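Notes taken during the Thursday session

The instructor put the following on the board and asked us to keep it in front of us for the whole hour. The protein is Aldose 1-epimerase. We were told not to look anything up and to reason only from what is written here. First, the residues (353 in total):
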Amino acid sequence: MVYIKVIKEHFGLFEENDVWQWTLINDHGMKMCVLNYGAIVTSIETKDKFGEFANISLGFSNLEDYLAYSPYFGATLGPVAGRITKGQFSLDGKKIQLTQNEGANHRHGGKLNFSKKLWDVSVEKGLDQIVMTFEYCWVNGENGYPGNIDAKMTYTLNNKNEWLIDYEAKSDQSTIYNPSNHIYFNLSGEVGSTILRHQLWINSDRFLPIDEESLPIGEKRSVENIIFDLRAGREVAEITQSQDQQVKLVGAGLDHAFILKHENGRPDAVLFDPKSGRRLEMETESDAVLVYTANSLDGSFEMDGRAVPKYAGITMETQGLVDAINHDGFGDIVLRPEKPFTSRTAFRFTVES
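Then, after some discussion, the predicted C-alpha cells were revealed:
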C-alpha cells in the first residue's frame, strides 16, 4: 500500500523567484508533478495493463526547457484560451483591443498569459485526496483585458485515479474569461513515441471549422459522414491521413473545437492506447473540447534525451467555444462582477487488459 502523500522540491528560479514542484501521490501509486510556474503539470504517472508505471503526459524535467520552448506542455491558459480575431471584441458598447501575440490575433491570453505567471499555491492533504489551490491576481489592463481578475483553480488528485480541475474567477469589471489546460497526453508512456495508434472517441455531433489562421469561420458544422465524426471512435492515424481540407489546413491533424453533447452517464471524450491498455475518460462542464494532435512539433527539441516528434501527444483543452465573444450563438464567455465564473473538468485514468 502506498499512502497518499505530497513531496515539495525546488525546481529553479524565474526572475529571481523560486519555482517549486509538488509531487502528489495517491494510494494506488499514481503521481502528478505540478509547478507554481504556470500551474504546469510536468508529469502524470499511471499504471499500464502489466502494472508498470510511466509518465503519460509531455513535460520537461527542468525549468530552462519550459522557458526556452513554448508548446504549452501541461500549462494553464488564460484569461482566454484559444484565439481572438485581431485581438478585438465589443463589450457593453465599448471596443476592446487586446495584445496581438500570434500575427494580428490574440492567443491564449497574450504573450505573458497564465502559463507564464507564478501562482500562489497551497496544498491540503485529506484521507483520500490531495487538493492544490492556485491563485493569481490579473491586473486591470494587463494584455488589454478590462478588470482586476481574481483567478483561482484547484487540482485534485484522488484515490479514484482522477485529476479534477476546478476553475473559479471573479472580476471588478465586466471582462471575458475562458481558461483551459494545455495538457498533452501520450498513454503509451514511451518518450519519443506518437499517439497515432491511440483511439479517440468524442461525444460530439458538431465541430468548429477554421480558416488559414486557425480562427473559427462562425459555422457549427455537422460531423455526419466526415472524418470529424468520432462518436464511434477512430484511430488517430486515420484522422491524420485524411484528405479532408480541415485536417490538411492544420498540418495533417486536429486543432479543432468539438461541441460536446453532455449526455448523462457517458464521458465527453475517451482516449485509449491498445498497446499499454491505458484508458482516459474526460468529463467537463465546458461547452467544448479543443483537440490538438501536436501537428507543429518537429523534433527540434528533446524531452528526457529523446527528440519530441510530430504527433508526440494529444490535447483535450476543455473550454467555451473559441472566439465566442465575436460570434453569435457561440455562447457567453463574459465574466461580470455580479456573477463569478466556475467550471470543472475531470480526467479519469483506468486500465483495460
